[in-house]
């Protein structure tokens, strides 16, 4: 029996409940536990809502919010790839693309294609909307590390230079004024 | 020393990290633990993104998404008031209003007032946007209860009639077609 559009949409919304069980490297600011990818996505959408004036160029705030709401759902199939890990980028990209096709494929075709397109735009990071979204996705964990006294930088023995090279270009490209603040924080944190 | 706009915005974004520690009555669909209000807000924003075609009237999907992202942040100060509790509605409303003023008051004035207005619009539930947002905020926990075999209805000894009266009017008003599905689920669940 063919599923109705609504049945497909509800199946998708039930499936993505699992993003709440994907645990990231970053902790909450109170250090009580690690953050999960669903609450991280909520927080990033709030970052976009509040900080849109710092984007690199003219952006559509609501598209950025939508992008950030769904940017991590592929982690339901492939897990979180930490920024400081050594995993192969090629295999990660392939796995995430397959996951995106499976997940957005649960939706009615037109809606699924639209959201898959938005996810792909985020991944390619060529538009101003996507560049700003990517910048926030780097800015939030950096902020957490600074305000928890080091966080994943200490756990993974990350150096001052590595922070600059792993976060800097992406944050600076999408939100230069936010990177200026990061430079001050990171310099102070590492006592440079 | 006066804080800059950006300093205020970052203080707000750090403060709302605490929404991740507010635990709701509903569990995750896999029943592994209770849901928190931050990941609940993410999921509701996704519900709005996916289900906007079922709204009662002409809505602005992006305003609804924004509303749902921030609808629960007052719980940082006052906690979650469960739907099946006996708390006084008057005192709840007062406490939540004070919390909204404190939290949105952390932001630069104009931005804070805009978002406070959006939160108040949600609470008043008079516009189509707010009615649809309120409907989703009832629909999601109902779905969780149905797909976890009873959930909070069993824990709080909630009857068939109470489910109809506590969820029905609000879901039906904002999203009549979603309520039609709920009626089937709830009737089957209670074996009526």
From TrEMBL, chains A, B:
SUPFAM superfamilies: HD-domain/PDEase-like. GO terms for cellular component: cytoplasm. GO terms for molecular function: 5'-deoxynucleotidase activity; metal ion binding. Residues 16-179 form the HD domain. It comes from the Bacteria. The keyword Membrane does not apply. The keyword Metal-binding applies. Keywords: Hydrolase, Metal-binding. PANTHER family: 5'-DEOXYNUCLEOTIDASE HDDC2. This is HD domain-containing protein. It comes from Parapusillimonas granuli.
């Amino acid at each position: 029996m063919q599923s109705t559009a609504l049945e497909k949409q509800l199946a998708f919304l039930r499936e993505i409940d699992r993003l709440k069980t994907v645990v990231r490297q970053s902790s909450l600011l109170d250090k009580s536990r690690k953050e999960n990818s669903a609450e991280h996505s909520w927080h990033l959408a709030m970052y976009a809502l509040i900080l849109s004036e710092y984007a690199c160029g003219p952006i559509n705030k609501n598209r950025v919010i939508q992008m950030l709401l769904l940017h991590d759902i592929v982690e339901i199939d492939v897990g979180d790839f930490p920024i400081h890990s050594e995993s192969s980028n090629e295999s990660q990209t392939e796995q995430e693309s397959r996951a995106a096709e499976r997940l957005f494929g649960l939706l009615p075709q037109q809606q699924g294609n639209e959201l898959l397109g938005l996810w792909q735009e985020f991944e390619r990071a060529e538009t101003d909307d996507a560049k700003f979204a990517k910048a926030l996705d780097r800015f939030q964990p950096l902020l957490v590390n600074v305000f928890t006294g080091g966080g994943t930088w200490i756990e993974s023995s990350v150096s001052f230079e590595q922070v600059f090279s792993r976060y800097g270009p992406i944050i600076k490209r999408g939100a230069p004024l936010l990177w200026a603040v990061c430079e001050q924080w990171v310099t102070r944190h590492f006592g440079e």
